[in-house]
Design a protein that fits this description.
By secondary structure, this protein is of the alpha+beta class. It is about 65% helix and about 15% strand.
Length: about 200
Amino acid sequence: MSNLAEEKKDLSQEELEKESCEEVKDNPEEKAECEDKEPSEDKKDKKKNKADKKVEELKEKIKDLEDKNIRQIAEFQNFRNRTEKEKSQMFDMGAKNVIEKILPVVDNFERGLASLSEEEKTSSFADGMNKIYKQLMTELDNLGVKAIDAKGKEFNPDLHNAVMQVESDELESGIVAEELQKGYTYHDTVVRHSMVSVVS
């Protein structure tokens, strides 16, 4: 009996239970109790299936979270792009409003300089006004403001505003005969149409 006890020390708990069950196979009550303790193949399969199912659920959950993360990154990128575009549009609108307010000042400069006599044009005052006008036009040009070329060009309703028709032997019909007020564009967008007379 002592030899049997020593051998059993080296066995695992599961093997001990299995062996003890084999020892009591003559006693039907103890045998039934022992069989209940033994993990059956069905129970092992159920445990394995349950573990596999849990792994699959976790994998599915990870996939869902990854999809959500990708969608959120894409939404944020779209939001950034939309915000940048709106900011740019707002800046352009603000710049356009300022340019519209400056253009009458440019018109008055041009009228004032055009009305000077030959004697006045040589004065230091006229020279100073001319320099200020040129500086103003250079800064507008740097901002992307360009004068619309109208005289002698074919009438274009997108750029020109016809206020009168004139007869002309030199020019063909539909050609701009005279520019009454300069038009301007800002980054290829019309800020003010050229006011023109067109050959009928």
